[in-house]
Amino acid sequence: MTHQVHIIGGGMAGSEAAWQLARRGIRVRLSEMRGGGDTTAAHNSDGLAELVCSNSFRSDDDEKNAVGLLHYEMRQCDSLLMAAAAKARVPAGSALAVDRDVFSAEVEAALRAQPTLELVRERVDALPSEGLTIVATGPLTAPTLANSIGSATGADSLAFFDAIAPIVYRDSINMDVAWMASRWDKGAEASLAMGGDGRDYINCPMNKEQYLAFREELLAGEKTEFKEWEADTPYFDGCMPVEVMAARGVETLRFGPMKPVGLDNPHWATDEHPNGRWPYAVVQLRQDNKLGTLWNMVGFQTKLKHAEQVRVFRTIPGLENAEFARLGGLHRNTFLNSPTLLDRQLRLKSAPHIRFAGQITGCEGYVESGSVGMLAGLMTAAQVAGREWSPPPRTTALGALLAHITGDAEAENYQPMNVNFGLFPPLHDVKKKARKEAYTERAKAEISGWVSTLA
Ligand SMILES: Cc1cc2nc3c(=O)[nH]c(=O)nc-3n(C[C@H](O)[C@H](O)[C@H](O)COP(=O)(O)OP(=O)(O)OC[C@H]3O[C@@H](n4cnc5c(N)ncnc54)[C@H](O)[C@@H]3O)c2cc1C
């Protein structure tokens, strides 16, 4: 069977993309290296769509939760992953958790039953020079293919190590304590050119006592252990975990990410110092999305356990009530600087016959990866049929995630991202308490119209 579309990688994204194409009668070759003599450092089986770690697709609450809403929208698009999850579901409260073996078997059986799909157990070592292709090889893309992708995109564009700092919702930061400023008021011109007002960072001040106590918390906090296969991976200069820096000396953080110089705190203004004084140490947050709803903690990549991060980081003045859109972490990852390299249809600008899908595009998590695979499949199906593609509305979870990946995220500091309400166009007029429901109601009202445009 000669194929119309070649999909490389039979994980979460590749399996969903293959389903969306094959069920529309399009001939697909799905290449998966596991089962053909290769594996990755995290997979344990040869099954398609293997969940490598947790067995949870997180919250299934589609009224107040962004990932639950993503489940809902995927179901509207007849997602294979959501159908398989329903069959493999195990009790887990409001979370959607599955028996991973049943889940993988369901996905594989559904794909094998498609007459236009050919599943080939083979490793692909280079990006095809022609033919519609979807690359969905995930965070642990085989090194030979990763090199080929690196050559096609520029070596600097493919990150091999994922240093994630926490991201905080802007409206949960206490601005009676924190304040906006750039160090020494530098970069005002560049800021104005970008639509800013020259005060680009949110600064959280600490006095000496607070700084010393905070450092102790970082040192004592419970850490995630490195996996065996990660142990040899060196820390790069730019992604040293904050607790490793803290362990190097009392002052290391004050000369690193918590440097206070050039940052007058106006909340500490006096007659003698009308502009305020420099704090003893400062935690800075930088805008993470164009909407200005998400702010990342600069230099705060960390291996602290998630619950510890919430506890310790809420001791930072101004972040007492911080809500986190994403918590920090550090693991090997292969992902593109998608906002720079991909067009709005996930195509490599320099080689538009190639689409990327799944975690390699810089989304994070099983569900997000599956949903981006689904979108890649739907886009490719439209292309094969010669139909114009209309993207999902920006107000839906699918639309918000896609817009983030393909252009709305800040390209310079692009890091993997879970779906969250901070990616949605804000609803400032709605009271904070009712906002999550308002986001999901708006999305649900708009998704069905868009789904009806899909053939
Ligand atoms: C250690 C670890 C733990 C994780 N834990 C979680 C978690 O608990 N929850 C969560 O939501 N997410 C977790 N993730 C993220 C998760 O892996 C992804 O969200 C999701 O699996 C990505 O889907 P994907 O389809 O992009 O990649 P994958 O699901 O990894 O699929 C990629 C597929 O491509 C194949 N492949 C790779 N290279 C080639 C090649 N050259 N030729 C042919 N086939 C190839 C691989 O064998 C694999 O089957 C974790 C990731 C890692 C690395």
Description:
It is an enzyme of class 2 (transferase). It comes from Novosphingobium taihuense. The chain is built from 13 helices and 17 strands. Helix 1 packs parallel to helix 11. The longest helix has 20 residues. The model has no long low-confidence stretch (mean pLDDT 91). Flavin-adenine dinucleotide binds next to helix 1, strand 2 and helix 11.
Quick overview of this protein structure:
This protein has 455 residues and is of the alpha+beta class. It contains 13 helices and 17 strands. The protein has helices at residues 12-22, 66-76, 80-88, 100-112, 143-153, 188-193, 208-220, 242-248, 306-313, 338-341, 366-385, 397-408, 432-451; strands spanning 5-8, 28-32, 56-59, 89-90, 95-98, 117-121, 132-135, 158-164, 167-169, 179-181, 201-206, 281-287, 294-297, 324-326, 329-336, 347-348, 351-356.
Helix/strand order: EHEEHHEEHEEHEEEHEHHEEHEEHEEHHH
**DSSP, total strands:** 17
The oligomeric state is: single chain
Overall mean confidence score, pLDDT: 91
Broad shape: globular
Distance between the termini: 24 Å
State the CATH topology of the largest domain. FAD/NAD(P)-binding domain
CATH fourth-tier homologous superfamily of the largest domain: FAD/NAD(P)-binding domain
Binding site for FAD: 9-14
Cofactor: FAD
Family: Belongs to the MnmG family. TrmFO subfamily.
Domain MnmG N-terminal: 4-387
